TrEMBL record:
UniProt KW Chaperone keyword: no
Molecular function GO terms recorded: endopeptidase activity
Transmembrane segments annotated in the record for this chain: 34-55, 61-84, 105-125, 131-154, 166-185, 191-212, 219-237, 267-286
Pfam families, per database record: Rce1-like
PANTHER family reported for this sequence: MEMBRANE-ASSOCIATED PROTEASE-RELATED, PROTEASE
Protein name: Abortive infection protein
Any one GO biological process: proteolysis
Keywords, ordered alphabetically: Hydrolase, Membrane, Protease, Transmembrane, Transmembrane helix
KW Transmembrane (keyword) present: yes
Length: 307
């Protein structure tokens, strides 16, 4: 490894360090930090989308570019928090990454399988064609990048910083609505589908973050749901009709309220009902742990809401 590569590796490692350090500059107001972080992650999102476009349906490139998107997004977030807030990015503590993902991924898979089973029970799902392992691999890499980038933007940035301005409940509502609204840009988007995502995913992922104060659990939940939906069962995700095929080619039919229609299962009433359960559980955990903050509490503490 060259000297430059060694220094770059040390710099990246330092961004994830949880050791306190002496501030070297004044911390900007919350609103300014929020604006800067949002702009920064819009750029990261565009860069990740460009890499997905280059990878196309190629499984190897999708895995490589997905891993690159994950690494770049995590490093940008950790470095931005250290620079803008003059503190370690405690919600990206790598010592709890394994446990967060080990919990989040099985729960996310279970939630989607439960939703899928209800849709299938009512005759809303069938398959056609053969099996495509390459399609599943392609979507694995793609969904890893999507889950990480979106969680860093909507939970790590929007939820966390809006919470300092509006309290936990305000942050849940605002970040959830924005998370749903961003899906309106997808080709097969509907207003109902975006609202459903705001309720089932925006609230659940925000509640998971509030309860744990780590991004690893919502990242695991988000990735597992998306990959199960598109990568395994081959169903349209959030109106994204131009995605590669998954392991099987799934076909939705029947009333849109059951199957989600062209938007996919995210718009199914069953997705809302199934995801309501962990949302309530996570909010109860957050309340027991004293992690549901009011705006006044946060302003009095004058520190981000981590404990």
């Amino acid at each position: 490894m060259s000297l430059w590569n060694a220094r770059a590796a040390q710099w990246v490692k330092r961004q994830f360090s949880q050791s306190p350090f002496e501030p070297t500059r004044r911390v900007w107001p919350t609103g300014v930090r929020l604006a800067v972080m949002v702009v920064l992650f819009i750029l990261v999102t565009g860069f990740a989308a460009g890499m997905r476009g280059v990878a196309g349906d190629n499984p190897v490139l999708s895995l490589l570019f997905g891993a690159a998107a994950v690494a770049i997004a995590l490093t940008v977030y950790a470095a931005a928090v250290r620079f803008l807030e003059q503190r370690p990015a405690s919600d990206l503590d790598t010592t709890v990454a394994g446990s967060g993902l080990r919990i989040g991924i099985p729960i996310g898979l279970g939630l989607f399988v439960a939703t899928f089973a209800l849709i299938a029970l009512f005759g809303g799902y069938s398959t056609k064609g053969g099996v495509s392992v390459g399609g599943a691999v392609t979507l694995f890499g793609m969904m890893a990048g999507v889950a990480v980038v979106e969680e860093l933007l909507f939970r790590g940035t929007v939820f966390r910083l809006v919470e300092n301005l509006a309290g936990t409940r305000g942050a849940l509502a605002i970040s959830g609505l924005l998370f749903g609204a961003i899906h309106l840009v997808n080709p097969g988007a509907t207003v109902w589908g975006s609202l459903a995502i705001a309720i089932e995913a925006g609230l659940m992922l925000g509640a998971a973050y509030a309860a744990t104060r780590t991004l690893w659990l919502p990242i695991g939940l988000h990735f597992a749901w998306n990959f199960a939906q598109s990568g395994i069962f081959g169903i349209t995700a959030s109106g994204n009709e131009d995605m590669p095929g998954g392991l099987v080619h799934g076909v939705l039919s029947g009333p849109d309220v059951i199957s989600g229609g062209g938007f996919g299962p995210d718009a199914s009433i069953f997705a809302i009902l199934v995801c309501a359960v962990p949302t309530v559980v996570f909010l109860s955990m957050a309340k027991r742990r004293g992690r549901l903050y009011t705006r006044r509490q946060l302003q009095s503490a004058r520190t981000p809401a981590f404990s």
